[in-house]
Design brief:
- The chain has helices at about 10-15, 25-50, 55-74.
- By secondary structure, it is mainly alpha-helical.
- The longest helix is centred in the middle third of the chain and has 27 residues, at about 25-50.
Length: about 70
Amino acid sequence: MESPETPVHLDKVEARSGATPHIARYVLVISLALAIVALAAVWMTGAINAPDDTGGTADTAQAVQEQAQKDAAK
């Protein structure tokens, strides 16, 4: 048995005590790709199902009309 004062030196393989397959790297890459595909699908589905008359001047004109109706009701 070694004394506590003697430093222990291990090489990388002994310190890891096993093989180091790069499976974690593959899992992270595949998970990232799946997350990107899922978010893109959600975004595209929302864009496809959105009404055509939204955005830009259509929303502005609608907001002006609604505000005018509220002001007229007061």
